[in-house]
Amino acid sequence: MVLMKDGATCKLCGATPQDGAKLHVDHIIPWAEGGETIFENLQILCERCNIGKSNVQL
Question: What's the mean pLDDT when you consider all of the chain?
């Protein structure tokens, strides 16, 4: 569902699997800061952007 919502594209850099990107489901409000694992709080990020983001809310 989250992949469909975000068009299988990284919300930060626009990378796709066709570009060779590994996609991750990420919490918009980090789980460590009380962000819930609900559809509205999830987004798609590529592995590189997700690792760079860590626990920062964008």
Answer: 92
Nearest to 26 by CA among 13, 45, 40, 48: 45
Query: In whole angstroms, how far apart are CA 10 and each of 16, 34, 41, 44?
Result: 7, 23, 15, 5
- Domain extents in the chain: 2-53
**Comparing C-alpha atoms, which of 33, 57, 32 is closest to residue 45?**
57
- CA gap 57, 37 in Å, rounded: 14
Is residue 20's pLDDT more than 80?
A: yes
What are 34's strand-pairing partners? none
Residue-level pLDDT at 10: 98
DSSP state of 23: E
pLDDT at 57 over 80: no
